[in-house]
Amino acid sequence: MDDRANEVDLDELDGEQLRGGCFCGKVTYAFSAHHVVRTAYCHCTQCQRLTGECCPFIHTIHLPSTAVSLSIPSSGTAAQPSELAASAIDIKSPPGALRAYSTAVKPHKTRLRCSTCGTCVASINSRTGTTSVWGVHLARLPAGQIYHWDKVQPTAHIFYGTHLLAINDGLGKWSGYEHSSDRLDE
User: Fold this and answer.
1) Where would one find coiled-coil regions in this protein (predicted)?
2) Which H or E run contains 149?
């Protein structure tokens, strides 16, 4: 998000609420920290390829799709943004401010990008009913730290078997999802 989109009224983010969005600020989202299912650094080849060669891994936050509220501009010049749960988005015909993309390898995972700036704001998994958002897009404190970092700090490295960069940070490394796959710690 640019500086305007990243400015957040800290009183608005009290308790467990977290907000994020695209670079231009047109598409935003919010969720409560107590809904977080998983928070990890993902090293899968899908994430590597879809985020670009400059990102060997991403900070992913998985939530039930019903718990992620997206604010998307409505069509029309004076219309207020529409608020809807990620689970309510028709991925075959997303709202105009979003573009949807699924790969043939994992057609059940659909990436949603802002149609203006191209930022990938979420990934909806139709198989699990979850939505992933990325830590890099979350609101930040004036000094640059992610607001409520303690609530979304990664607990592991997932899909580490395909890592491009060795990480030695004390977090567990897994071949798939944490506690659901083989542990790969060195």
Assistant:
1) none
2) helix 149-152
Backbone angles phi, psi at 106, to 5 degrees: -135, 75
Are 47 and 33 a contacting pair, CB within 8 Å? Answer: no
8-state DSSP, 73: P
CATH tag, 3-173: 2.170.150.70
Q: Tens of pLDDT along 95-144?
A: 889 999 998 988 999 999 999 999 999 999 999 999 999 999 999 999 99
Task: Could you list the beta-strand ranges (E) of 26-134.
Answer: 28-32, 38-42, 58-64, 69-72, 82-85, 98-102, 109-114, 120-125, 130-134
Alpha helices per DSSP H over 23-112: 45-51
Reduced to 3 states (helix: H, G, I; strand: E, B; else coil), residue 30 is strand
Q: How far apart are CA 69 and CA 111, in angstroms?
A: 16
For residue range 5-54, what is the model confidence (pLDDT) as tens digits? Answer: 444 444 444 567 999 999 999 999 999 999 999 999 999 988 888 776 67
H helix and E strand count, the chain: 3, 12
For residue 172, what is the DSSP state? E
> Strand 172-173 and strand 156-158: pairing?
parallel
Domain borders along the chain are: 3-173
What φ, ψ does residue 65 adopt, rounded to 5°? -60, -30
- Which tokens belong to 180? 């659901």
